[in-house]
Specification:
5-stranded mixed sheet, about 30% helix, 7-stranded mixed sheet
């Protein structure tokens, strides 16, 4: 059972200079809409607001990429970094905090700071993530929602509990009509749901349904991982969550074991969704564990 999760955990949380040659990573900047750009490199996609007030970034990937991220930002506009928003605590989204934190205040949900400020032990993964240094921690936190009025628009962060983790926020750029969903949304692929950080498959499915109802017509979506997306892409992702969860839920109700459930697999329609680092059997195991734990 554990053999499926250990490599995944190493990939997500311990990607380092030893495991990946960051010198080969290129940061790609894409104009999304209005004031907003998206940066792609290694780790979670970065959202960028650029305007007269300066620069605000949503997530910051890994510390070794900070200079490349800074160069990509300068290529968009030679402006001062003013704010950093973190969508959740995972290192592929917050690793750059240690570099950028001394330059601009970091904002995140309460649980992001709590998890980053303390050692995170994972019995399942047999690994301990040490507490982050002070300069990497959010200095402004919120419970449910927070707004930053910046570059001529309200940038609204809304917390959605117990989805990918217990500290996820979705960022709405209300005038630019762009939404950054963080790791609530893995575009065209099975998601990673961090059960030991308060994540829940049922919670994620519920949250995505609620988020879909809040997204304005014509909005462009920045996923945590994957290409720039549309509401139709998010609706397909939501259907995947609903249908694959129901399949596993029925197998649990029928008394099927995890191994039986894995061996029976998922419909052909979702085959390509397991082509990324979350393979089909990893997703099945995640669903099985999460749905079995529900009361």
């Amino acid at each position: 059972m554990k053999k499926f999760f250990v490599p995944l955990f190493v990939l997500l949380f311990t990607v380092s200079i030893h495991a990946q040659d960051f010198s080969q990573v290129q940061i790609k900047a894409t104009k999304v809409s209005g004031n907003v750009y998206m940066l792609e490199g290694a780790g979670g996609n970065i959202g960028v607001s650029v305007g007269d007030d300066g620069i605000l970034i949503v997530d910051d990937q890994f510390a070794p990429l900070a200079d490349k991220i800074r160069a990509a930002l300068k290529g968009i506009a030679d402006k001062k970094l003013r704010f950093i928003l973190n969508t959740h605590w995972h290192g592929d989204h917050t690793g750059g905090n240690v570099v950028f934190g001394p330059e601009a205040p970091i904002i995140a949900h309460d649980n992001v700071r709590k998890r980053m400020a303390t050692e995170q032990k994972s019995e399942f993964f047999k690994r301990t993530t040490p507490a982050s240094p002070k300069e990497a921690l959010p200095v402004i936190t919120f419970d449910h929602n927070l707004s930053v009025y910046f570059n001529g628009e309200e940038i609204r962060a809304i917390h959605y509990p117990h989805g990918h983790t217990d500290g996820d926020s979705v960022i709405f750029f209300t005038t630019s009509n762009v939404v950054h969903l963080g790791d609530n949304f893995f575009a065209g692929r099975f998601p990673f749901v961090d059960l030991e950080s308060g994540g829940s498959v049922a919670g994620l499915t519920k949250n995505i349904g609620e988020i879909i109802d809040k997204i304005p017509a014509g909005a462009k979506l920045i996923p945590g991982h994957g290409p720039l997306s549309t509401i139709d892409d998010l609706k397909l992702y939501h259907r995947m969550l609903q249908e694959t969860s129901e399949i596993v839920r029925q197998k649990i109700a029928a008394g099927k074991t995890l191994e039986q459930t894995k061996s029976e697999g998922l419909p052909e329609e979702w085959k390509t969704w397991g082509a990324g680092f979350i393979k089909t059997d990893v997703w099945i195991e995640t669903m099985y564990r999460s749905l079995s734990a529900r009361k």
